[in-house]
Design a protein that fits this description.
Shape: globular
Order of helices and strands: HEEEHHHEHEHEHEEEHEEEHHHEEHEEH
Structural class: alpha/beta
Number of helices: 13
Number of strands: 16
CATH superfamily of the largest domain: Type I PLP-dependent aspartate aminotransferase-like (Major domain)
Low-confidence stretches: 443-451
Strand content: 15-25%
Amino acid sequence: MSLIQRNLIQRDRASLWHPYAPASGDLPLWEVEAADGVRLRLRDDDGGRHEVLDAMSSWWSVIHGYRNPVLDAAAKRQIDAFSHVMFGGLTHGPAVELAERLLALVPSTEGRPRLERVFLADSGSISVEVALKLAVQFQTAAGRPKRQRFLSLRGGYHGDTFAAMGVCDPVDGMHSAFPGMLAGNVFAPRPPAAATATAEDIGQWRAEVEELAARHSGGLAAIIAEPVLQGAGGMFAYPAECVRILREIADGHGLLLILDEIATGFGRTGELFAAGHAGVVPDIMCVGKALTGGYLTLAAMICTGAVAETVSRGAAGALLHGPTFMGNPLACAVANASLGIIDGGAWRADVARIGAGLQAGLAPARELDAVRDVRTIGAVGVIELRDSVDVTAVTAAAISHGVWVRPFRNLVYTMPPYVCTAADVEQITAGMAAAVAEVHERIPSRSGGAA
């Protein structure tokens, strides 16, 4: 059979590998024929076409929608100038502007060192790698070379590269697949859930984390956490007070605090950065995903001036990392346009509106017997099942209701683009609930009858 005779999905299965998937000739796939605004036009294996709302923002990044005219124009202008130059020994306007924009937006508070230095990376996972390297180099330069490990939270996710994997949850992460290759880091209990946490729960958690930090402080470089919301580790929201506790523990033991805002940054949780819920300024912060509005891969590691100066005065004399595509001008130009939209401030009302719609629209799913929990934070909505989700069946069922979702583990969730209308959010939530009911509901719901 010639390539012309075989459809695109068949050709894909014969040659490509997809995320967290086997190399398989029958992998469930849908071809994207077009993307515009908040909608995707899909084609299935049999040639059928479907228009769906993208409830995932393409893994949480396309916050301004597809074919956004402001981002399109920025990309075209930069292409007409130059698309890439090396960042070693050279600089350019888009990178400098992006650094200045980021430093104007990141959290700050009276009495804390400011975030003052930006390292531009290829992806979120790489920005975490750079942050971890920086923390170790900092401790060495400060005369504490034995501080090589990290205190991380159970339930956390920080990326798929090796050092990043090493600070992901040791059970639900990928530690068992790579025995002996991941650093022996220290894992604190997952914080209590935001919806049910009491002062006693938070106090007990604090005591456990404090004890771990004290016991291992001689070998720890930093604490790393996703503030307020653990994303790929379970869409788990926890109290902002816990972030303040991590800041205090880090300060008390000479540790740096790394906050991973790759999923939570740029408004997703209702604050520009999730650290804002806690009023905390980290020593190192990682951002990515929505940085370019989902147009191009780009991330950043941002640190305080004190950290940068200490490392620069160390024996190495430099931060030991330098990607080929660091500071790519095209990506930086689009990121500047995306941050320009963020600067306009409409995101705050958009996220509040979407959050209210998610709360109302997902509430009926609580009546399904297959559902353990329904929760929202900012523009994030989650249906947690009692058992593992049937990813293929739920995805197909949601498509039949005009919604694209990508469930994982026991979660069917949404992080929609900020430009979704109230009607869009209503369709997303109804489609999610209907898909769960059609696939997983085998016992009549408490409301009387199958949904």
